[in-house]
Amino acid sequence: MRDGDDWILNGAKTFITNGYNCDLVVVAARTDPSKGAKGISLLVVERGMEGFENGRKLDKVGQPEADTAELFFENVRVPQANMLGEEGMGFISMMKLLPQERLGSAVNNVHHAKQILLETIEYAKERKAFGKAIGTMQYNKFLLAELVTKIEVAEAYVDQAVEAHADGELTAVDAAKAKWWSAQSQSEVLDACVQIHGGYGFMNEYRVARAWKDARVTKIWAGTNEIMKELIGRDLGL
Question: Which whole number is the average pLDDT over 128-145?
């Protein structure tokens, strides 16, 4: 709500990366609800403003070292000078950077999975069962061949998207494809890596177990995989 030259901000948001320790946040606020997306503006809120509260650090399934929290805003008075960009342009500003965010997520997905896969291949060479390395058993050998191919195909597509982004040609739809495919591929690869490790793969002391837990959220953040498919489907005219 506008109040003279200030804005009075009310609301809450959860799952905020760095929300527990942050001193400054950029809030997407409805400054004119009657205009829908065109009524969203970006307000910069600083620690110490009355009514602004950093909530508790959330207890996540994976990535326990990461700071993720809730934020609360109760009648926070935000000066007009703290508006970032133009009034009503907040949604448009955020949308411009979504492809870059999704591409960054895709890069992380591919290389996170690739590293754990390489470590799993070495484990399969060293771990013995029935007198021979488990990697030499046909099922495991074929599975690892499939996983390597899956990751290299995903990596090639993501590399192509990176080049397109560097040239200013990456579309939102292609970024969505890279994001959902890499997240799904990572999930399948890491799940298989856990299986190859057997019982050890379920132990937190093994990196593969921690990687498996850490990766699960990548099918949710930066837009869920389902939303990515929705964007791709719309582009097909469906």
Answer: 97
Q: Which two structure tokens, joined as six digits, stand for 78?
A: 């935000």
The tokens of 90 are what? 């907040």
Domains of the chain from N-terminus onward: 2-88 (2.40.110.10), 96-235 (1.20.140.10)
Distance of alpha carbon 43 from alpha carbon 136, whole angstroms: 58
Q: How far apart are CA 68 and CA 66, in angstroms?
A: 6
Beta strand pairing status for 24-30 and 40-46? antiparallel
What's the first-to-final CA gap in the chain, in angstroms? 38
pLDDT in tens, 97-113: 999 999 999 999 999 99
Q: What is the full DSSP assignment across 160-222?
A: HHHHHHHTT---HHHHHHHHHHHHHHHHHHHHHHHHHHGGGGG-TTSHHHHHHHHHGGGGTTT
- Looking at residue 37, what is its pLDDT? 92
Q: Which residues are catalytic?
A: 101
CA distance 159 to 170: 12
- Residue 159 has a pLDDT of 98
The Cα 37–Cα 47 span in angstroms is: 27
- C-alpha torsion angle, residues 158, 160, 161, 165 (rounded to 10): 140
Q: Which helix (H) or strand (E) holds 228?
A: helix 225-235
Instruction: Categorize the per-residue pLDDT at 94 as very low, low, confident or very high, splitting at 50, 70 and 90.
Output: very high
